[in-house]
Amino acid sequence: MVGVASPTAAFPSLETALKHHFGYDQFRPGQRPVIEAMLKNQDALVIMPTGGGKSLCYQLPALLKLGVMVVVSPLIALMQDQVDSLLDNGIAATYLNSSLDFQAIRQREADLLAGKIKLLYVSPERLIRDREINPGFLGLLNQLMQTVGVSGFAIDEAHCVSEWGHDFRPEYRQLSVLRQTFPQIPVMALTATATERVRVDIAEQLCLRDPRIQVSSFNRPNLFYEVRPKGRDGYSELLNQVKQHQGSGIVYCLSRKRVNELAEKLTVDGESVLPYHAGLSDETRRENQTRFIRDDVRLMVATVAFGMGINKPDVRFVIHYDIPRNIEGYYQESGRAGRDGEPAHCTLYLAYGDVATAEYLIAQKPDEAEQRIARQQLRQMVDYAETTVCRRRVQLSYFGETLGDHLEGLCHQCDNCTNPPPVEDWTIEAQKFLSCVARCQERFGMAHIIDVLRGSKKQKILDLRHDQLSTHGIGKDRSVDEWRLLGRSLLHQRLVDETTDGYPVLKLNAASWQVLRKQISVQVAVPKDFAPGPAEASTIEDTPEVAQLLTVLKALRKKLADQQSVPPYVVFPESALRQMAQTRPQTMEAFGQVSGVGSRKLAQYGEVFTDAIRQFCADYGLESDPGAARGRSRPARERRQAVGDTHRQTLELHRQGLSIEEVAAQRGLKPTTVASHLEQLIRQGEAVDIDQLVSRDRQRAIVDVLTELEHGSLTEMRDRLGSSFSYEDIRLVRAAWQMEQQP
Ligand code: ADP
Ligand code: ZN
Q1: Is the CB of 573 under 6 A from ligand 1?
Q2: Is the CB of 29 inside a 6 Å radius of any atom of ligand 1?
């Protein structure tokens, strides 16, 4: 059933329309096919992760078709944001919900009937009453049908129709009356839900008719995932990390109490923070949320109550200071970082004390079955935190998706991929541990076993005469923490069992005996004390000039946003500001080339921004329009600074004539990493000799496919070319080719 994006050229002007209205140069994966479906009046089911760009899937058709697009959206705050963003792009949009008075509603209805509006947002409560379309609204729809027309229905957050989803809303279930009442109008349902069951439910509940189904990958390549141990001094570590990060961030905690404590501590330490949890009044919550979205404060410390309906696209990091309850929750919460596609960072702090607290809370649940599920989910979460394989692979496999084969199971964007933890052979220690479990007659928990191993003379040990056991004191050479690490690892590798009745007692199983009989060895991944930052391979540092201009432009954006009472990202996305800082456009024409600058934004902001850039260049004696994105006319000094150290080393070796494999061997990196350095260097306009990397024949073949599938995915191109072509070949040639296409 899964639809595959096809790069048809049926609507050759779609890109032009995209640039004109939204300022973007290219569609994100999956957007084009569903937009085409909507233009052909076909139903569609759009499943894209957070930040995938769902809104555009109905917004662009709304502009290209006759009539009004009716968008059902569950959250009033979100509606307002969306409408603000659209208005700022010069797109006529409005909403109808319970927050408006009668007069305002009349005015908006009049505008709609006069054909002044292309997108109408409504809440499900406004649309449905007593299982029917609300008579007042039905009247409006009928009038619209007879006058300007209705171009489609878009059902946002469509998982709300499903009881299997996490946010069921009864009114959503009634939305099929739209289809029954207006069978000729196409329906598009959109959601970020990851589970198959909910997807099927959506199509059935909304009576979708032969929908175009677009399931995008749930991989979010711009997010860097890592897990850090939360030691005794977890707080200073967190503070340190927060200080290192730039931009907005969310710190999630498990309870209101911890939110309040942490928010207070961070404030004392000079951070700009607000708390958010269900214990605060509606008004305080709303206000704190707005101040965060508008960049008045940098950090939100919150419980999971925060996030639904927050579409702040420029959250740069999400930290889970306490372990989340399950993987799906973690994916959704951490996924609130980097919706704009720019690099962002997700950190989970793991402390076994927190796991114990979570287990305790689970044990308080009245329902046995519920407890079992919760325990299992928590265990999966701990497994994720402890895993030594690619974290992305673990997450995606949870959703039934596999990471592309060409990546060899590595994403290069998580701590385990960029900095694999050393695995040590702890077979002897495991034998000591397990035999101690046996000597204690499988009647004690981990803490006791460790006490015995470490030779403790606690009263309890003496009373039980466990100081007489042959295993008493045989583990003095390891710390308590090390024994815990081993014990946990044995549990996760199922090399020992633990009772689950709330009093965890260690029990040997068949595998334990294999270890004791020396039939299998035991490998333990020893966590690093402190993982270094994001993948060095994937970040290109800004030059001082770029960083400084970016700061200037951000301040200008904030000022303009405040004047209009909108969040800064409504004025320009972060990526657009960065591109401005890099290319320093000083004419309206050059400014219009920046991705994210559409016709309206050009008219509205072109002058102030180019003024600011011109001023900056004059102040610092910088040349105008360096063409930095292309890197052609930039002075050599600056060009050398534009890439990080590691890229420069790769470049040096490349220029000495070394092949990718040779560079990789010499630098102790993977060939794919070296290839990605070179690709970035090409995009920075550095002189990389593509002939040295890919033969002329192969270049020609790749360029042929590129021209044909200009907007196709790498996978499609590779399918076309055959498996003798590597993804690296294609990426390198594509980068070089795209650079040539630039004016
Ligand atoms: P979702 O609803 O799927 O979470 P949004 O629709 O809010 O995502 O889009 C996320 C961000 O991506 C927004 O800032 C949006 O403007 C941006 N975006 C959408 N489509 C494109 C595109 N084709 N090119 C660049 N940015 C895009
Ligand atoms: Zn990885």
Answers
A1: yes
A2: no
Two structure tokens written together for 595 = 């991705």
pLDDT at residue 535, rounded to an integer: 34
Task: Name which residue leads in pLDDT, 580 or 634.
Answer: 580
In this structure, the chain runs to a length of 743
Asked if residue 736 is part of any domain, the answer here is yes
Tell me the three state secondary structure of residue 94.
strand
Say yes or no: CB of residue 313 within 6 Å of ligand 1: yes
pLDDT in tens, 272-300: 999 999 899 989 998 999 999 999 999 99
State whether 341 and 478 are in the same domain.
no
**Among the three residues 197, 215, 233, which one is the final residue of a domain in this structure?**
215
Q: Is the predicted pLDDT of residue 243 greater than 50, yes or no?
A: yes
**Domain extent at residue 723:** 628-741
24 Cβ closer than 6 Å to some ligand 1 atom: yes
Q: Is any atom of ligand 1 closer than 6 Å to the C-beta of 406?
A: no
- Burial class for 674, CB neighbours closer than 10 Å (0-12, 13-18, 19+): buried
Q: Model confidence over 470-506: pLDDT tens digits?
A: 999 999 999 888 898 898 788 767 788 887 565 678 9
pLDDT digits (tens, 9 = 90+) for 565-609: 888 988 998 889 999 998 999 999 999 999 889 888 999 999 999
How many domains are there within the chain?
Answer: 5
CB 419 within 8 A of CB 516: no
Considering every ligand atom shown, identify the ligand nearest to the alpha carbon of residue 52 and give its number. Answer: 1
pTM of the model: 0.64
Classify residue 490 as exposed, middle or buried by CB count within 10 Å of its CB (0-12, 13-18, 19+): buried
Query: Ligand 2: distance of its center to the CA of 182 in Å?
Result: 47
Whole-number average pLDDT of the chain:
86
Asked if 331 and 433 sit in the same domain, the reply is no
Q: Ligand 2 centre from 410 Cα, in Å?
A: 5
| Together in a domain, 231 and 197 | no
Distance, in Å, from the CA atom of 577 to the CA atom of 553, rounded to the nearest integer, reads 7
Tokens 């933890």 -> residue? 421
Pair 714, 650 in one domain: yes
Domain assignment present for residue 311? The answer is yes
Reported as a pLDDT band with limits 50, 70 and 90, residue 231 is confident
Question: Does residue 409 form part of some domain?
Answer: no
Q: Is the pLDDT score of 463 beyond 70?
A: yes
Would the CB of 339 count as within 6 Å of ligand 1? Answer: yes
Same domain, 715 and 636: yes
Q: How many angstroms is it from 340 CA to the middle of ligand 1?
A: 6
- Whether residue 605 lies inside any domain: the answer is no
Q: Please answer whether residues 2 and 215 qualify as being in contact, where contact means their C-beta atoms are separated by less than 8 angstroms.
A: yes
The minimum-distance atom of ligand 1 relative to the CA of 341 is 12
CATH number at residue 460: 1.10.10.10
Q: Do 333 and 433 have their domain in common?
A: no
Binding site membership of 14 for ligand 1 (Cβ less than 6 Å): no
